[in-house]
Amino acid sequence: MKKVKITPIRRSEYQDLIARYENPIQHTCDVVLGKEFVSIDGQKPDGFCDEAWSCMEKFVTALAKGGGNFFDGWMKNEHSAMISCNDGFRPVSFYIETIE
Description:
Layout: E1 4-11, H1 15-21, E2 37-39, H2 50-64, E3 80-84, E4 92-98
């Protein structure tokens, strides 16, 4: 299987939605932009967010098995994908790509 690099590249924060709908919380996402994670054999990297992983696992698995070209040419690099976590208040966008 191929290794897949996962890089968080953008974080958004919707203050209007937070103020209107979210209960106050102590801890929010601690993903560091630009930090690279590597999935080996399609497995979740150590220390990677469980919720973000649940959003991208099928794409990482497909890339690890040599797949790609999701949605008929969606990405310039057919062995990559741009996936966001499912946090509606503070979504993080991750670029995932085959590296081996």
